[in-house]
Design goal:
Elements (H helix, E strand, L loop, with lengths): L1 E6 L9 H11 L4 E6 L5 H14 L4 E5 L4 H8 L7 E4 L6 H5 L2 H18 L2 E4 L2 H10 L5 E3 L28 E9 L5 H14 L5 E9 L1 H10 L5 E4 L4 H9 L3 E4 L8 H8 L4 E3 L6 H5 L3 E3 L4 H13 L2 H18 L2 H15 L11
Parallel strand pairs: 1-2, 1-3, 3-4, 4-5, 5-6, 7-8, 7-10, 8-9, 10-11, 11-12
Helix pairs in contact: 2-3, 3-5, 7-12
């Protein structure tokens, strides 16, 4: 079986989609994969350029990642010339996301996204909450609920390497890590508000806030400098071994997001047994039932309460929270489990198997 994956970009300008696709391609060894992106051409030519690339490729089905782009317009208007396809919105269909550039997205849904969804053999949701959002907009489509997978670290390769903040903070200090896109969607403004209050109330705290990523760096730097917010550092984008070293040397992870599909950075943090401060919009609701997550909604008071609670934990208690997170992702997000479900989905679309029980 050969699958053609279509997305906007292979780097971070497409958010976490590129990470999810790379993980899928690197771990799904029972499928031959090809990945085509279309962000390098002038906008007016992209649809035609992508259609030309598709016609030159040999494949059995198409897996479309993301919304609003050329690949979705082709799925709407050229479906008869395409092979069977599945669409993964990657969190772009939730209520908060649809309110951003609201008018443009309403036009897109009316003129091509609705048709693309109805033409698809199946829509791939990353969690049940996303599936519910899809169902509310497109009541007649088939939906498969399959999470992203995650790789587990080899700590022997990184245990002696120092993180990028090693010259800024002492080893005895505890790092609260934010890793991802610097964007209002991620609750960074509310996080800074809460952190400023937290350090003013807890002047002897050993916790230090580290932002690592890309996006609106100027906003963060300006606020930190002008408001003289203490115990916080900002670093640029990292990947590979350097990212693993950062996770390994952190003491907790935070993401008070307004909107997510399924946040890869949070799941990766859990593979390093980190306690996590997350909003419910991160769609890891099952973890709340285990009491292993600290709730941090994207408002100043909720984040502050979560920081205060975090500050009360000793190392044994932090380890217990982290171990619970690790056990959860081991059970639900391993590449073996996720790849098996993806292959079941593909085989069903091609008519080679019965309908899996995760499709409804």
């Amino acid at each position: 079986m050969k699958v053609l994956h279509l997305s906007y970009s292979k780097n971070s300008e497409d958010g976490g989609i590129n990470t999810a696709i790379k993980q899928l391609l690197n771990t799904n060894h029972n499928v031959s994969n090809e990945w085509i992106c279309n962000n390098t051409k002038p906008k007016i030519l992209r649809d035609f350029e992508l259609l030309g690339k598709i016609k030159k490729s040999d494949f059995d089905l198409i897996h479309i990642h993301g919304l609003w782009r050329s690949q979705n317009r082709l799925a709407a208007f050229n479906s008869k010339s395409l092979k069977p396809f599945v669409i993964t919105p990657h969190g772009m269909i939730d209520k908060w996301a649809l309110k951003q550039s609201k008018f443009k997205k309403k036009i897109a849904i009316k003129f091509w996204e609705k048709k693309a969804f109805n033409n698809a053999m199946c829509i791939h949701a990353l969690c049940q909450n996303e599936a519910n959002e899809i169902r509310s907009l497109f009541p007649n489509v088939k939906i498969a609920v399959i999470p992203n997978s995650v790789s587990f670290p080899n700590l022997n390769k990184i245990k002696n390497l120092k993180p990028i903040w090693s010259k800024s903070f002492h080893e005895s200090e505890r790092i609260l890590l934010f890793l991802g896109r610097f964007h209002k969607k991620k609750g960074i403004e509310q996080l800074l508000n809460a952190w400023k209050i937290f350090v003013s109330l807890n002047k002897s705290t050993k916790w230090r806030l580290v932002f690592i990523g890309y996006g609106d760096k100027e906003y963060l730097l300006k606020r930190i400098q002008e408001e003289k917010i203490k115990h916080v550092k900002l670093f640029g984008r990292i990947s590979g071994v350097n990212k693993d070293v950062v996770f390994h040397n952190s003491s907790a992870f935070i993401l008070p997001s307004f909107s997510e599909g399924l946040p890869m950075a949070a799941i990766e943090a859990m593979t390093f047994k980190l306690p996590c401060l997350l909003s419910r919009q991160c769609n890891l609701s099952e973890l709340y039932k285990t009491n292993h997550l600290l709730n941090a909604e994207p408002n100043t008071q909720s984040i502050l309460d979560s920081l205060i609670n975090l500050n009360k934990f000793n190392q044994d208690e932090l380890n217990k929270l982290g171990k619970g997170n690790y056990d959860y992702v081991s059970k639900n997000f391993s590449s073996t489990i996720v790849s098996s479900k993806i292959n079941e989905l593909y085989n069903w679309i091609l008519g080679d198997s019965f309908k899996p029980n995760f499709i409804f």
